[in-house]
């Protein structure tokens, strides 16, 4: 099986599992939690993009 097919299959199974779990136990995110998550994402996303670019160019 092609590696991309395996990756997509695993991704689909994980997404279905997350949707199943979150639909059974819905929780509301408070504004304070949302601000905290937003702060972390604003820090982590650029770090991951920089790391991916370094990995791409170095090998």
Describe the structure in brief:
This protein is mainly alpha-helical and 59 residues long. It contains 2 helices and no strands.
Describe the structure.
This protein has one domain. The chain is mainly α. The protein has 2 helices and no strands. The mean pLDDT is 93. Keywords: Membrane, Transmembrane, Transmembrane helix.
What is this structure's SSE topology?
Blueprint: H1 3-24, H2 31-58
Order of SSEs: HH
User: Could you give the count of β-strands?
Assistant: 0
Largest sheet: none
What is the distance, rounded to the nearest whole angstrom, between the alpha carbons of the first and last residues? 25 Å
Spans of at least 5 consecutive residues whose pLDDT stays below 50 are none
**Average pLDDT rating:** 93
Summed up, the helix count is 2
What quaternary form is this?
single chain
What overall form do the CA principal axes indicate?
Answer: flat
What is the C-alpha radius of gyration, as a whole number of Å? 17 Å
Total domain modules: 1
Strand content: under 5%
Task: List the keywords.
single chain; 59 residues; transmembrane; membrane; transmembrane helix
């Amino acid at each position: 099986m092609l590696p991309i097919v395996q990756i997509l299959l695993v991704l689909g199974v994980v997404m279905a599992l997350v949707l199943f779990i979150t639909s059974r136990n819905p929780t509301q995110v408070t504004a304070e939690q949302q601000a905290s998550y937003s702060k972390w994402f604003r820090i982590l996303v650029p770090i991951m993009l920089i790391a991916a670019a370094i990995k791409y160019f170095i090998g």
